[in-house]
Q: What sequence folds into this?
């Protein structure tokens, strides 16, 4: 576990040409952080020069508190057997990201899904707008501010017969004639 | 030569072969596919979003339903990602149990694949046999976990229950039975000229493009490339076991079938080895009260070799009692969309679902 | 390969050999498939073992479990009276509900066939609707090892028994931050404890705040209805822990120690003030007089002061705190802890007049006239007699008097050997204090050790310190020496007689078992009573006193609308501090209601 030579080498090979930051997470895991303009160059460089030919995964995380989307490209070298995570953060308002399906065709699927689920635009992306959803005109649903519960309540109806359900804590509070102050309620048991 | 008129054919969404509901828009000339566009969206259940509303353990009930034939690899991959975030050690015995479960899951999934592959080629008897035999594996799961298809058995820190008394003997007996049945399967399927004729030279993935296209698992090994998460990035105790990762040249359906045929034998061997070497001891490093279990902030990526190829989970935590983001990528995510679209042109319409089965297309996993 | 591969074509015909073989399938319903021994089928709940904590309902990922008020089960402390009902249309049989059930009452069965054409009939209560057939089919269960509930308490660090008898240093060392978080994580937040707590503190909320690392919020929640948490965190009788959902199969959550931990995060008066940030309303010009600065009086005074009342407390002793100050040894509740709490109260605006005994230094009439409302929280100050011969000789002392002398900084020579009579916390206190003066101590108790009303931790602590307990020993007389001092105590052994009608077993003396225990001091700890001699006769018509206790309504109001009372001396009193706090809190509400019109 202490021997992370090839990981260190990879880190240097990626960070030096592009002047970007990164770190070795553990064995077989290296991550680099770059701005969104650099992503495609890093990926192309890693694919063509370093042998990271397999795009294992692409994902997006909505950091709503930071008002950013984090895009993560996971690539893998069958020779080195190391994962390289290329991470970037883009603005949550009008998010636009470079389309990389010229580098890997299958990125097209990921990007179509991100476009639908997070509302990220990828200029030049081919493929129908509907991926998994159909006639969806609400907020992109994987965004953190989309409330699934509220949507379900509004869209579907509950089967009748369960209205007599009681909350244990409320029942006890009622029975003992007390009150839980408002500032404490966020610590009560979730329902 | 008269150019035949190009028509559009909608294949699916009602189960094009035993894969799950998806639709492929085929442009065909006569019997030949000119181009294919895939459409998923018939099985979207918003699992990833729902997981964000549940606590870390609750995710299991959804995870195992990502893809029906492969509930266990999903559980294991998620568990390993969470363990990495939480720095949670897994007891040695649990690792062995996990491997046994994984290989049993591989067997039951292969048996289902036999049914799908043979069935979409017209060999229906095969399906009746293999699905019948699959029930013997499911019986083992029932004894172990209390459930037949969805086990919810592997979770962070180990496994849920220790092995029941006499279970390993029952497993070994079932292994002997399945090993003997290989002869029958060969007779019916692999040595069968009809199957060979339909499989050879069909649905070819070029070797030089395979990795770049995102091909993983048996289809990749079917192009002659030796790649398997179990040896590339050994997890649990795979590095302590003796097994072969079979490869087969050709890149066609036949090559993929041959890889799977050999892997079936390897799985049986792995199970026997794991049972023999399994130590006694703890099976579970208990997590705290699941309602209050806080996983430290961080991000983790874990991948596992499932029957159809690598399955990866990207899990992010913001230091609360719920996952912040869980993203699953299964083999079908590439196989079922871009690879399929590349492989289908030039093929016969009748081979479309045959190819889908050989690639391990699983629509519920694509859209989750 | 030729175009026709004959062998390959004939191969599949091998399948024909299967003809005539016994099929693999089971011919349902002629043959039955028995599910495995831990099959996850339909639920079964043992209704009588279930305590209605609702943990199953909380974990259910599909929101399939509702908690329903089941008429045949009556709710009481330790049982919400609710029982789970499953929507089998939503259930996915993951059995997480079984694995988190703290009592183990909820199980899954081998029964997996449920056919109906009425979609509404998927809702049913396990254990009620499948009462007969479910029980025998139980398959998937949880025990204390497989359960996800955490049954083992984080142990509390204490001074070694040998070390602690050397001084009055605090025995319990308190949780560290990590220990507190780990202990708080065990709590399942059901809230059953709140009903057992006389003051109904917001226990799940503050424990959850500790679990999440928000200690300041925890302190704030605690102060919402308890102004003496440091005291409760150290010496509370914690009825809450008796009904904890986890104590059914394991250790209760250490609620008291967690409260103690929370208060330790605000170590000074300034820190408490900053964290609690109390809102003090504008003075409303109304006055309340309080007799006795014990937990009841202080609680009433604190919350009344917050509401803008002008509060004056009259305390006969030199220190506030009442029984907590004078009755509880300092190794359990150090002096600076009390001082800090009193200082905090005074900083809010509560005025305390020390060394002012009502009936001597000030008359009750004056108080009655000068204040808009009066609260009586005098506690039980007069010890009961042991009721045996020679009880009045020198060397015999009631425990509370003994403790009062020591706690006020005085001294009392107990000699080399001490006998303590009684089995409550006061008896143990008397014994452990004597042990700290180097005496050899023996406790005589009428019943068995398990019948002792004292805290088990106190009993264990005493034994660690070398205190000897003789159970089932009934004292009969005290033996004098030639100087007229105590020389020993005679007792008889008792056997436990089971009572008809299920009462607790009664000790009956065994004839001829008289034994003499030689000792220098006998400490009696068999209870106390209230002293009402200070109350002028004319008030006793309206302020009704029955069986030594003041009669009050739910607002802690006596027959005289202006006079309220609480604490050990009223009928609600369970004779512990938390009940006194509850009385003070209720009286505060009652007084506020009474005086609302005048505002």
A:
């Amino acid at each position: 576990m202490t021997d992370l030579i090839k990981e260190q080498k990879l880190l240097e090979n990626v960070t030096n040409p592009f002047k970007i930051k990164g770190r070795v997470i553990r064995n077989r895991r290296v991550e680099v952080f770059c701005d969104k303009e650099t992503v495609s160059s890093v990926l192309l460089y890693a694919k063509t020069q370093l042998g990271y030919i397999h795009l294992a995964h692409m994902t997006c995380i909505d950091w709503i508190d930071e008002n950013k989307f984090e895009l993560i490209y996971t690539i893998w070298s069958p020779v080195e057997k190391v994962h390289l995570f290329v991470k970037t953060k883009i603005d949550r308002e009008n998010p636009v990201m470079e389309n990389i399906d010229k580098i890997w065709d299958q990125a097209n699927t990921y990007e179509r899904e991100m476009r639908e689920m997070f509302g990220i635009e990828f200029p030049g992306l081919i493929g129908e707008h509907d991926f998994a959803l159909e006639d969806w005109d609400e907020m992109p649903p994987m965004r953190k501010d989309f409330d699934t519960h509220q949507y379900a309540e509004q869209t579907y109806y509950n089967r009748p017969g369960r209205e007599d359900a009681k909350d244990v804590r409320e029942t006890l509070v009622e029975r003992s004639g007390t009150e839980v102050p408002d500032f404490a309620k966020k610590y009560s048991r979730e329902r | 030569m008269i150019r035949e008129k190009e028509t559009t054919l909608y294949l699916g969404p009602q189960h094009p072969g035993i894969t799950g509901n998806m639709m492929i828009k085929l442009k065909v000339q006569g019997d030949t596919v000119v181009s294919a566009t895939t459409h998923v969206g018939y099985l979207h259940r918003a699992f990833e979003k729902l997981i964000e509303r549940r606590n870390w353990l609750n995710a299991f009930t959804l995870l195992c339903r990502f893809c029906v034939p492969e509930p266990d690899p999903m559980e294991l991959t998620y568990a390993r990602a969470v363990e990495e975030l939480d720095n949670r050690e897994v007891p040695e015995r649990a690792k062995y149990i996990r491997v046994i479960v994984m290989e049993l899951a591989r067997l039951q999934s292969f048996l289902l694949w036999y049914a799908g592959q043979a069935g979409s080629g017209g060999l229906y008897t095969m399906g009746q046999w293999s699905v019948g035999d699959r029930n013997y594996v499911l019986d083992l799961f029932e004894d172990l976990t209390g459930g037949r298809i969805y086990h919810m058995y592997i979770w962070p820190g180990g496994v849920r229950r220790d092995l029941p008394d006499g279970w390993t003997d029952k497993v070994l007996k079932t292994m002997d039975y399945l090993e003997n049945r290989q002869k029958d399967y060969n007779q019916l399927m692999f040595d069968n000229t009809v199957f060979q004729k339909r499989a050879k030279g069909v649905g070819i993935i070029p070797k030089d493009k395979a990795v770049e296209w995102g091909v993983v698992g048996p289809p990749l090994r079917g192009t002659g490339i030796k790649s398997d998460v179990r040896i590339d990035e050994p997890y649990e105790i795979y590095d302590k076991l003796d097994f072969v990762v079979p490869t087969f040249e050709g890149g066609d359906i036949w090559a993929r079938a041959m890889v799977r045929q050999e892997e079936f034998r390897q799985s049986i061997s792995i199970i026997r080895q794991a049972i023999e070497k399994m130590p006694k001891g703890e099976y579970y490093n208990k997590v705290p009260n699941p309602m209050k279990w806080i996983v430290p902030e961080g991000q983790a990526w874990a991948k596992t070799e499932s029957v159809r190829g690598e399955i990866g989970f990207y899990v992010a935590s913001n230091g609360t009692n719920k996952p912040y983001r869980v993203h699953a990528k299964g083999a079908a995510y590439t196989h079922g969309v871009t690879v399929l679209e590349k492989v289908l042109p030039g093929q016969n319409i009748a081979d479309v679902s045959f190819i889908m089965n050989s690639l391990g297309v699983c629509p519920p996993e694509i859209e989750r | 390969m030729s175009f026709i591969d004959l062998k390959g074509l004939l191969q599949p015909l091998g399948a024909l050999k299967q003809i005539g073989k016994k099929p693999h399938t089971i011919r349902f319903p002629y043959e039955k498939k028995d599910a495995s021994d831990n099959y996850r089928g339909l639920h079964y709940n043992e209704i009588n073992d279930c305590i209605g904590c609702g943990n199953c309902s909380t974990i259910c990922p599909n929101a399939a479990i509702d908690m329903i008020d089941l008429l045949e089960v009556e709710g009481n402390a330790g049982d919400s009276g609710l029982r789970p009902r499953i929507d089998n249309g939503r259930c996915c049989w993951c059995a997480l509900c079984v694995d988190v059930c703290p009592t183990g009452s909820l199980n899954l069965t081998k029964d997996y066939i449920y056919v109906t054409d009425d979609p509404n009939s998927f809702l049913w209560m396990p254990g009620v609707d499948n009462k007969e057939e479910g029980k025998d089919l139980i398959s998937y269960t949880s025990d204390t090892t497989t359960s996800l509930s955490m049954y083992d308490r984080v142990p509390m660090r204490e001074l070694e028994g040998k070390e602690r008898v050397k001084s009055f240093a605090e025995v319990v060392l308190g949780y560290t931050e990590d220990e507190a978080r780990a202990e708080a994580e065990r709590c399942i937040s059901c809230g059953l404890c709140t009903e057992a707590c006389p003051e109904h503190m917001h226990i799940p909320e503050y424990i959850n705040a500790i679990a999440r690392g928000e200690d300041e919020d925890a302190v704030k929640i605690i102060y919402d209805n308890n102004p003496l948490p440091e005291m409760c965190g150290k010496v509370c009788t914690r009825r809450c822990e008796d009904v904890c959902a986890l104590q059914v199969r394991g250790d209760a959550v250490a609620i008291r120690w967690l409260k103690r931990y929370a208060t330790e995060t605000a170590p000074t008066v300034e820190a408490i003030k900053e964290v609690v940030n109390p809102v003090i309303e504008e003075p409303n010009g109304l006055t309340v007089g309080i007799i006795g600065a014990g937990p009841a009086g202080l609680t009433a005074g604190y919350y009344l002061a917050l509401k803008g009342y002008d509060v004056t407390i009259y305390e006969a002793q030199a220190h506030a705190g009442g029984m907590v100050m004078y009755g509880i040894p300092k190794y359990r509740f150090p002096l600076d802890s009390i001082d800090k709490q009193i200082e905090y109260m005074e900083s809010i605006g509560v005025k305390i007049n020390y060394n002012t005994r009502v009936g001597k230094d000030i008359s009750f009439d004056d108080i009655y006239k000068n204040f808009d409302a009066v609260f009586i929280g005098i506690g039980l100050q007069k010890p009961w007699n042991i009721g045996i011969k020679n009880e009045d000789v020198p060397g015999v002392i009631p425990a509370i008097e003994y403790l009062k002398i020591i706690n006020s900084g005085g001294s009392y020579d107990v000699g080399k050997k001490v006998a303590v009579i009684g089995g409550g916390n006061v008896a143990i206190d008397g014994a452990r204090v004597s042990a700290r003066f180097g005496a050899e101590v023996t406790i005589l108790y009428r019943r068995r050790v398990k019948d002792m009303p004292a805290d088990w931790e106190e009993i264990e602590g005493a034994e660690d310190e070398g205190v000897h307990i003789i159970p089932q020993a009934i004292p009969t007389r005290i033996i004098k020496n030639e100087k007229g001092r105590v020389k020993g105590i005679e007792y008889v052994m008792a056997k436990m007689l089971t009572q008809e009608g299920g009462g607790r077993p009664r000790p009956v003396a065994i004839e001829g078992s008289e034994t003499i225990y030689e000792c220098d001091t006998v400490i009696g700890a068999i209870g106390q009573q209230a002293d009402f001699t200070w109350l002028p006769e004319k008030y006793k018509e309206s302020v009704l006193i029955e069986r030594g206790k003041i009669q009050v309504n739910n607002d802690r109001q006596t027959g005289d609308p202006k006079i309220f009372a609480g604490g050990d001396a009223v009928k609600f009193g369970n004779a512990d501090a938390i009940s006194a706090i509850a009385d003070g809190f209720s009286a505060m509400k009652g007084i506020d209601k009474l005086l609302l019109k005048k505002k």
